[in-house]
UniProtKB/TrEMBL annotation, chain A:
Pfam families attached to this UniProt entry: Amidase
Source organism superkingdom: Bacteria
Name of the molecule in the record: Glutamyl-tRNA(Gln) amidotransferase subunit A
SUPFAM superfamilies: Amidase signature (AS) enzymes
Top-level taxonomy: Bacteria, Candidatus Nealsoniibacteriota
Biased composition annotated in UniProt, kind: Polar residues: 134-146
UniProtKB/TrEMBL annotation, chain B:
Protein known as: Aspartyl/glutamyl-tRNA(Asn/Gln) amidotransferase subunit C
Keyword Transferase: yes
Family named by the database record: Belongs to the GatC family.
Biological process terms in GO annotation: glutaminyl-tRNAGln biosynthesis via transamidation; regulation of translational fidelity; translation
EC numbers, comma separated: 6.3.5.-
Catalysed reactions, semicolon-separated: L-glutamyl-tRNA(Gln) + L-glutamine + ATP + H2O = L-glutaminyl-tRNA(Gln) + L-glutamate + ADP + phosphate + H(+); L-aspartyl-tRNA(Asn) + L-glutamine + ATP + H2O = L-asparaginyl-tRNA(Asn) + L-glutamate + ADP + phosphate + 2 H(+)
Enzyme class: ligase
SUPFAM superfamilies tied to this protein: Glu-tRNAGln amidotransferase C subunit
Record region (Disordered): 63-87
GO molecular function: asparaginyl-tRNA synthase (glutamine-hydrolyzing) activity; ATP binding; glutaminyl-tRNA synthase (glutamine-hydrolyzing) activity; transferase activity
Function: Allows the formation of correctly charged Asn-tRNA(Asn) or Gln-tRNA(Gln) through the transamidation of misacylated Asp-tRNA(Asn) or Glu-tRNA(Gln) in organisms which lack either or both of asparaginyl-tRNA or glutaminyl-tRNA synthetases. The reaction takes place in the presence of glutamine and ATP through an activated phospho-Asp-tRNA(Asn) or phospho-Glu-tRNA(Gln).
Length: 476, 108
């Protein structure tokens, strides 16, 4: 038995039956990280000693016959924009290079409460802004399926850690596709939950009306276990909601799935389209009713997103001021700064990378006097129309199938010089964040050794239904 | 195409210190992104209200009660224990402090 290939419930059973110890399991993963992280660069920092001592404690729990939560002893990886108390949290940025998280995010408290083992923090595009993990200030992550290609982004480190066998599962965050697109590129399962389903307390904010934390795993079942462990209302996040819908049961023959015609137009790689169409056909053969639907405002989702997300980011990132925490020009002995304004200008100019500055500029422009109505308010109104499109379609169908990305994983360096071409990578994923719906990225095929993901979009708070739909694919 | 002056103005509003070279670079890049975003002008939004949050958000009020920790509260094993305010840890992250306060440069 190769313990590095086991799923969460297999590990849980194995630990209880004492087929292997939590320590053995933890060592296996730490050894793999040691061996492979140099080439993949999924982890920015590992937490080896602490992880091993936690594993020993869990073995003691097992010996003492204590009850074992499902995630007890399960090694996991955390995107480095989620705070884990007393270990660094950089958000992939120089501005937070020396920042040590002063408290745990709510999702981390929940994982720790179940005695999950945190192996380390994973690489990301700076402040989760990007689609390739090339925007990390600490260097790019590589796709474990092909080391010359990107793992997607921004949760590229988390997806690569799971795909490369360096972690059982990982947490990511998704503002415009940052869990689903790297999952598609790496061949993992990624769930972007409904907006509000998971607490954002302790997640470094990018765009607060779009951000959600979610799991990345090897199987749909693992994804579901982790989602159930981290979800729920939190009094420290006033936008979090307790979902009343759970344990969804349905009959395959009653399932109706919509395929929006606007997602299969020019621009999609024909090979990707073929794999997605074959997957949809397979569902049809299983007895699922497939019908064409229309989401007429699809083409406006990306420009709408690239006003709303940078606008919110420009406000959220105002907190990096060189005074409270993070990089400060006042600590630079050669600095000539005199006034408070200089502290702001120099700390932020030095600390932020190119893409983050670009988005702060874009958002500041869209919110500035004279442009607010033409850009920000207009985008919010278009957001209403996009939301109405989905509400209309969800009256007819249970879920929607689309590709996650129009492209296969691209080469490192291929798109980084042209910001707009990088933005177009998110064209199929941003709508979901604008409307707040949950969506799953499910690997449904490969072209050569490069995976292709099917996006399954559900009604708000129907995560269980899209997860069950995902399981159908593998069960047959 | 937005002007160099506009780029400088935005950079100042955003509190970003940029070099002349960076200003020229952002002038080009922001212009091409804004051209793409112009696409939204095609959409008729007459009579449509704005959406700021996808899920209906309501104001959440804390109960008007004293915050003293209750003695000997027993928490069920599934609930998370209360958090401790990490005041000292937060202060340690600041570049300059004095007597437990953050220190800033003069404003005038």
């Amino acid at each position: 038995m190769e313990i590095a290939k086991l799923t969460i419930s297999q590990i849980h059973k194995g630990l209880k039956k004492k087929d292997f110890s939590a320590l053995e399991l933890c060592k296996t993963y730490l050894d793999k990280i040691k061996e492979k992280n140099k080439e993949i660069f999924a982890f920015l920092v590992t937490n080896g000693d602490l992880a091993l001592s936690r594993a020993k404690e869990i073995d003691n729990m097992i010996s003492a016959g204590e009850e074992l939560p499902t995630l007890a002893g399960i090694p996991c990886a955390i995107k480095d924009n989620i705070l884990v108390e007393d270990i660094p949290c950089t958000a992939g940025s120089r501005i937070l290079e020396n920042y040590i998280a002063p408290y745990d995010a709510t999702v981390i408290r929940k994982l720790k409460n179940q005695n999950a083992i945190i192996l380390g923090k994973t690489n990301l595009d700076e402040f989760a802004m990007g689609s390739s993990t090339e925007n990390s200030a600490f260097g790019p992550t590589r796709n474990p399926n092909d080391l010359t290609r990107v793992p997607g982004g921004s949760s590229g480190g988390s997806a690569a850690a799971v795909a490369g066998g360096l972690s059982v599962f990982a947490l990511g965050s998704d503002t415009g596709g940052s869990i689903r697109q790297p999952s598609s590129f790496c061949g993992t399962i990624g769930l972007k939950p409904t907006y509000g389903a998971v607490s954002r307390y302790g997640l470094i904010a990018f765009a607060s009306s779009l951000d959600q934390i979610g799991p990345i795993a090897k199987t749909v079942e693992d994804c579901q276990i982790v989602f159930n462990a981290i979800k729920g209302k939190d009094e420290l996040d006033s936008t979090s909601v307790e979902s009343k819908i759970s344990n969804f049961k349905f009959q395959i023959s009653n399932l109706r799935i919509g395929v929006p015609k606007e997602y299969f137009i020019q621009g999609i790689d024909p090979e990707v389209e073929k794999v997605i169409k074959q997957a949809i056909k397979k569902y049809e053969e299983l007895g699922v009713k497939i019908e064409e639907v229309s989401l007429p405002h699809t083409e406006y989702a990306l420009p709408c997103y690239y006003i709303i997300a940078p606008s919110e980011a420009s406000a959220n990132l105002a907190r990096y001021d060189g005074i409270k925490y993070g990089y400060s020009e006042t600590r630079n002995p050669k600095s000539k700064i005199k006034s408070l304004l200089d502290v702001y200008l120099e700390s932020r100019g030095e600390g932020f990378g190119a893409e983050v500055r670009r988005r702060i500029m874009l958002g500041t422009y869209a919110l500035s006097a004279g442009y607010y109505e033409a850009y920000y308010l207009k985008a919010q109104k278009v957001r209403t129309l996009i939301k109405n499109d989905f509400e209309r379609v969800f009256k007819k169908v249970d879920a929607v199938f689309t590709p996650v990305s129009p492209f296969l994983p691209f080469k490192i360096g291929e798109k980084i010089k042209d910001p707009l071409s990088m933005y177009l990578v998110d064209i199929y994923t941003v709508s979901v964040n604008l409307v707040g719906a949950p969506a799953l990225s499910l690997p449904v095929g490969k072209i050569g050794n490069l995976p292709v993901g099917l996006q399954i979009i559900g009604r708000p708070f129907e995560e269980d239904k899209i997860l069950e739909i995902g399981k159908l694919y593998g069960n047959n | 195409m937005i002007s160099k002056e506009e780029v400088k103005h935005i950079a100042k509003l955003a509190r970003l210190g940029l070099t002349e070279k960076e200003i020229a670079k952002y002038q080009k890049e922001l212009s091409s992104i804004l051209d793409y975003i112009e696409k939204l002008k095609e959409v008729d939004v007459s009579g449509v209200g704005p959406t700021s949050h996808s899920v209906l958000v309501e104001n959440v009020m804390r109960g008007d009660e004293s915050q003293k920790p209750k003695a000997k509260t027993i928490y069920p094993p599934t609930a998370l224990p209360p958090r401790q305010a990490p005041r000292q840890k937060l202060l340690e992250l600041a570049p300059e402090t004095k007597d437990g306060y953050l220190k800033v440069k003069s404003i005038l």
